[in-house]
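lol so apparently i was supposed to do this last week
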Amino acid sequence: MKIGILGSGEVGKALAIGFASSGHQVKIGSRDFENSKLKIWANELEDLILVDSFEKTATFGDIIVLAIKWDGVENAIHLANPENLSHKTVIDVTNPLNFSNGMPPSLYIGHTNSGGEIIQRLLPKSCIVKTLNIVNNHTMINPTYNEGIPSMFLCGNSENAKKQVTQILKDFGWKDITDLGDITECRIIEPITCLWIKYGMKHNTWTHAIRFLKH
Ligand SMILES: NC(=O)c1ccc[n+]([C@@H]2O[C@H](COP(=O)([O-])OP(=O)(O)OC[C@H]3O[C@@H](n4cnc5c(N)ncnc54)[C@H](OP(=O)(O)O)[C@@H]3O)[C@@H](O)[C@H]2O)c1
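anyway here it is w/ NAP bound
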């Protein structure tokens, strides 16, 4: 498949490498796509990953990944042009984190709204699936920890899009994958990130993840 990744931060790059390693064609988008650091990074990967504007990346992808800082999400969607994303699965890994009061961040929204729902409203013709937002970018692909493979969640309104994303998660190595329901379930998935950050600060670790144990 052709994967268009909007966002060239740590998450965008980690997922670009993950998708390319699984045999997909990958384009990564940035406002500053002529940026030499990004070009050097892509060149070092033997041009396995193309670099382009948000708009061309959105046009390229059959599946889109939204890996944008929350404050820039609306602008990135505007630059990508919602029409270029229509009728496509959009994997949303963003978290609506507010760092204005320092660490730990709080959520801009919650309880009766969520980042995923806002994105779905900005992209009414797209199928948003929220997932992977609760782990560090280093462990989004091949999530093998000393104590096993953590739990992963997803939610979204389109059953087909969720099936597609579940398969992608399995290809990446996830096993305990739970579809929580429609996009409003982002209201419970996004706050998990705050718990993850708080735990990291308390224990000075950033390689942890959440796993539900059963007996
Ligand atoms: N870091 C992690 O391990 C992790 C894990 C789970 C979830 N997340 C979430 O994933 C998202 C991406 O995180 P990240 O750490 O990779 O990087 P980030 O610094 O949060 O975001 C980087 C991307 O956001 C874009 N961006 C920033 N402001 C923008 C604006 N005003 N308009 C358009 N685009 C803008 C940048 O575009 P340009 O390339 O054009 O500068 C860049 O591509 C965030 O929502 C984060 O909360 C992160």
